[in-house]
Structures are given as C-alpha cells and as structure tokens.
Amino acid sequence: MIVNMIPWQSETNTIKELFRQVSELIRSLNNYKQNDRTKNLEQQKLTRDLQKLIEIFQNVQNLEAVKSRQLVEAAKQTVTINVSDSDSDANESSSLLTTAQAHSSGNQMRQLQQQQHQTNLNNEIYFNSSMIAERETEIQEIEQGILELNEIFKDLGTIVTDQQSLLDNIETNVNNVAIHTSSASNELTIANENHRKKQKTKNLILLFLVIVFIVFLTMMIS
C-alpha cells in the first residue's frame, strides 16, 4: 500500500498564493517612482530577497516532484506484481475449486482462505491504483505551480531591472546636480573676484580724483 506522498499540498498552494500577493504589492510599490535613493535601494533589496525565497521554494518543489515520481513508479511496479499474483491466485482458486469438488471436506477451508486473500489483494490493487492516479494529479499540480513561480520570478527580475535603471537615473541626476552646483560655485567665485577688482579700480580712481582735487585746492589757496 502506498502512502500519501504530498500531505502538505494545501500549504504549498497557500505559499504560492502568498508569493503572488507579495509580488503584486512590490509591483504596485514599484509604480510609485521616488527620487529617494535609500528607499529605492530598500525596495530593490526586498524584491531580490523575494526572488531568493521563490528560488529556494522552486528547488524544494522540483525535488518533491522527482521524489514523488520515483515513488509512483515504484507503486506502479508493485501494482503490476500484485495483478500478476492476483491472476495466479485466481487460477489456483479455479484449480482448487475443481479439486474441492472431488475432495470437498479436505480443501474447503483452504479455498475460503484463498478467496479471502484474493479479495484483499484485489482491494489493495484498486486502492493503490486510485492513490497512484491521485498522486499523479498532485505531481501535475506541483509542476504547474513551478511554472507559475517561474513567471513570478521573471516578473520580479523585470522589476529589479526597472529599479536599477531608476537608481542609475537618480545617481546621474545627483552627479549632474553636483556638477552644476560646482560650476555655479565657480562662476560665483569668478563674479565675486571681478566685482572686487572693479570695486578696487573705482576706489583707486576716486582716490586719484581726491588727490587731484586737494592739489588743485592747494594751488588755488596759494
């Protein structure tokens, strides 16, 4: 008898749904463009962390799918063997029935035991076949879930690329502002220097005029 190989399928579906919801939240958050480099870096880190978690979960899912397929194949072989045994037992029961007709009292108990064994074997074959079909359906769900996670992973990769482009633009803008600020500062320094030179020239001219006036006034008095 094979056992339930994927008892946590509902938890797996819950985890996949959480990944999907968080991915949508990150996408919505990414639509609000910000010029705050720190916040954008934190958002990018959050996205990459989610990518890592999805990648780990995908690896676990892949291993589970491989293991489940191996168990299903083993179970199929068991069912095949049981079917073969069942056919052999059926033939033996038929032979016993013929013999029992000739030796009714001696083989009746053995015949009943053989029939009970045949019934149990048939029930086990039916149960195992049903379980195999169920497990194969669950394996298909795992593989479908892996494909869905791949799509989420790709979407997050696109978001990371967009975030990096935004960060690069912010850095470029910051550098441009720094360059413009430096250029403006240099221009202001030059302007101040020119202003000081002009003011000095004016002062010299004024001083010269004062001296000329004093000399002229002295000559007039004399």
Automatic annotation (TrEMBL):
UniProt keyword annotations, A-Z = Membrane, Transmembrane, Transmembrane helix
Q: What's the family? A: Belongs to the syntaxin family.
Question: Biased-composition ranges for Polar residues?
Answer: 96-106
Protein's recorded name: Syntaxin pep12
Please name the InterPro entries in this protein's record.
SNARE, Syntaxin, Syntaxin/epimorphin_CS, Syntaxin_N, T_SNARE_dom
Which SUPFAM superfamilies does the annotation name? Answer: t-snare proteins (SSF47661)
A Pfam family reported for this protein in Swiss-Prot or TrEMBL: SNARE
Q: Which residues form the T-SNARE coiled-coil homology domain?
A: 129-191
What ranges does the record give for the region Disordered, renumbered to this chain?
83-115
Output the Gene3D superfamilies linked to this UniProt entry: 1.20.5.110, 1.20.58.70
